[in-house]
Amino acid sequence: MKSRYIISQMDKQEAIEFIQKFHYSKILPRLTRYYLGVYDETGLAGVVTLGWGTQPLQTIKKILHRDEVVTETYIEIGKMCFSPFKNGNAHSGSQIMSEVMKWVKKNTNHLFLYTLADGIMGKCGYVYQASNFKYIGTFETSVYRDIKTGEKIHPRSAKTLLMENAEFEGKEKVFWLTHDFCEYRGIEKINGIMFRYIYPLSKPAKKMLKKYPEYDGLHNPKDGDLVFKKRVEKGKFVKIPKPDFNMNVFNHNFQKYSTESNPIQK
């Protein structure tokens, strides 16, 4: 059956406006190379951005421990955003993902398509599972939440708070908000998990991935695998239900966009 979706590059500003209107997280990755429009018979139905996170080379090196691996070995899905009538439709999601894969294969030389499911937001990555991505494990992540407003504060956006925290503690610098400072400022530290997925885009990539038996036999995560913990005192966390975040508040977070085409590979 012929796909009813067409993928093509689109104007950066139009993509950003679409994401800020429909995506739960308004902040875009810093290194974005491609802004892809997802079009159907009604027009623009979604946006997918491709690029890298804050540590492009380190990310792929942690997954594929090989000397020849460089940043250009892979490209990462930064945002995948559909208009409301598309969201939650697994069939549409996997069909769109299939077209995105075709676009990447045709228009780039990357070996792998990589992505993360935001477990701290209750996302297990079902669309990636339906699209035959290989699940390759988890890592723990931390965010802060303003108790009064519900704003989700990413550690990268906490620069001003870290400076305040250092002054509060009488130190030159701190790298994480301390428990005492968070209590003083009405901020919670919440831990969750992120789920890693990777898709080989060529036969050489599939062959390379087979050399990592540690990724075989991993069961795709489900809702029951989600874990949320809140810090209640220094070094102590307790399990909590899925937290709610207000993604429309920007008292602490900031926006930063980049279309860098050649991120540093060292």
Topology (SSEs and partners):
Elements (H helix, E strand, L loop, with lengths): L5 E4 L2 H11 L8 E10 L2 E10 L3 H8 L10 E9 L7 H18 L4 E6 L8 H5 L3 E13 L5 E2 L5 H11 L9 H7 L1 E14 L2 H7 L19 E5 L2 E4 L27
Parallel strand pairs: 4-5
Antiparallel strand pairs: 1-2, 2-3, 3-4, 5-8, 6-7, 6-8, 8-9, 9-10
Describe this structure in words.
The protein has helices spanning 12-22, 56-63, 90-107, 126-130, 159-169, 179-185, 203-209; strands spanning 6-9, 31-40, 43-52, 74-82, 112-117, 134-146, 152-153, 187-200, 229-233, 236-239. β2 (31-40) and β3 form a beta hairpin. The model is unreliable at 256-266 (pLDDT under 50). Strands 1, 2, 3, 4, 5, 6, 7, 8, 9 and 10 form a ten-stranded mixed β-sheet that branches. It has a single domain (6-239), classed as 3-Layer(aba) Sandwich (Aminopeptidase), CATH 3.40.630. The longest helix has 18 residues, at 90-107. It contains seven helices and ten strands. Helix content is 25%, strand content 29%. With 266 residues, it is an alpha+beta fold.
Q: Main β-sheet, in a few words?
A: 10 strands, mixed
CATH topology: Aminopeptidase
Oligomer: single chain
Q: Which CATH-level-2 architecture?
A: 3-Layer(aba) Sandwich
Order of helices and strands: EHEEHEHEHEEHHEHEE
Rg: 19 Å
Q: Which key phrases capture this entry?
A:
single chain; 266 residues; alpha+beta; Aminopeptidase; 10-stranded mixed sheet; 7 helices; 10 strands; 25% helix; disordered C terminus
